[in-house]
Amino acid sequence: MASLGYDSFFPASHRRRVEVRSGGGGGGYGGSSRSRSVFTSYSSPMSRAAPHYSLAVSPMAADLEMSKVAQVSSEMMAVRTAEKTQLQDLNDRFAGFIERVHHLELQNRALESELQVLRQCHREPSGLRSIYEQEVRQLRAAVEEACGERQAAQERRHQLEEALRALQGRYEEEVLAREDSEGRLAEVRKGADETALGRAEEEKRLDTLLDELAFLKRLHEGEITELQAQMHYSAQVSVEMKVVKPDLSAALRDIRAQYERLTQQNIQSAEEWYRTKVGSMADTTARHSDDIRLARDEAGEFRRLLKARDLEIQACQSLNQALERQLQEVEDKQSDEIASMQDLIGQLEDELRTIKNEMAHYLKEYQDLLNVKMALDIEIAAYRKLLEGEETRFNVGGVGGMSSVFSHTISSTPSFGRPVFSVQSSLTSGTPYLLGTRLLSSSSFSDDMLTSSTAQKARASPAKEEEEEEEKGEEE
């Protein structure tokens, strides 16, 4: 048999170099012998090479060796049985792992499909976000327009208030002017009343003078009549008595002339006085009537102006009240719309935050599943390599049994380590150790992969958090 090496499967601490001799001819161990080096899976705690000796063995020693070989072979059978049971257990565990891998692959495919659906669903909010942003921009533009209208309405309100204050000032001035005009009108009325009273007194006095003049005329006519009668009687007496008497006609003529002159003077003076009084009264009446007419015209004009100002003030007040009501309605409407938009934006932000959290959770689960899948793939690959190695070794070891004798001589006393065993038994006995080493290496490799993936996730999580904070900042 050729020498078999298991350096690739066993570490240095579990290897020991021994000399294997195969006896040739008879039952002895003489003759030509060839040495070959093999590695066993059993080693002493001390890893050192023992000295090798070639000695001639007696028949008693051969019997002792055969009994020990039989004992060792029985032990090897027990070991092989235990190794076979352990291999069956490992095969069962391997089948369970394969079923678990299939189950996890199904779960992985389901999660991948769910992740794809979620990605497709989460691609849609980009359009919704643009729609919401456009709606928010329109609402902000409407709010700014409403604020501009409100500012214009406030400016118009200030202008109307200034106009109202100006009109109130003019109204107060007109009220003062009206009171002044009313005072002047009262004075003019008082003067007119006094003028009317004076006119009435003058008219009464004129009537009295006219009555007195008529009385004096009548009296003068009566005196003239009496004098004429006396003159006629005296003329008759003088004619009848034919007596020379004094000339009374001249005296009567003189008296008559004096009375006529006096009457004429009185009439002239009365007429002049009457004309003077009537003219002065007419001038005073005309003057006062003009003043009264002017005062009445001014009062009418002031009344018209006052009524116009009252109407303007009422119109401004009604317009101011209407504008205030409209401004209050616009403010209430805008505040309600802004509150509703803020609530809607808050709800959308909460939904977006919830979706991001769910997405991060799903990504974390997906990453965990990927890590588990990677570890299982690594473990499956290790098992596959082990199975391929086992199949290759079983195919190589199918030629037949082989007996080997290990002789170790220490201080002239021969000691036998592991006597005769077949290649198949050595391979099966090396299988648990090989499987353990492979499992250990695969588990350590999977642990390293999990550690590296966890570190990458930890490095990637701050970047995600920074991106989320930047997105929140842009949304705000």
TrEMBL record:
Native species: Clupea harengus
Gene expressing this chain: LOC105911357
InterPro entries: IF_conserved, IF_rod_dom, Intermediate_filament
Comp. bias (Low complexity): 444-454
Superkingdom, taxonomy of origin: Eukaryota
UniProt xrefs under SMART domains: Filament
Residue ranges of coiled coil: 101-219, 245-272, 313-372
GO molecular function: structural constituent of postsynaptic intermediate filament cytoskeleton
Residue stretches making up the IF rod domain: 83-394
Descriptive protein name: Neurofilament light polypeptide-like
Any one of the GO BP annotations: neurofilament bundle assembly
Places the protein is found: Cytoplasm
Family, per entry: Belongs to the intermediate filament family.
Keywords for the protein's UniProt record, in alphabetical order: Coiled coil, Cytoplasm, Intermediate filament
Region (Disordered): 444-476
Record bears the keyword Coiled coil: yes
Short name of any one Pfam family annotated for the protein: Filament
Residue stretches of biased makeup (Acidic residues): 465-476
One GO cellular component term: postsynaptic intermediate filament cytoskeleton
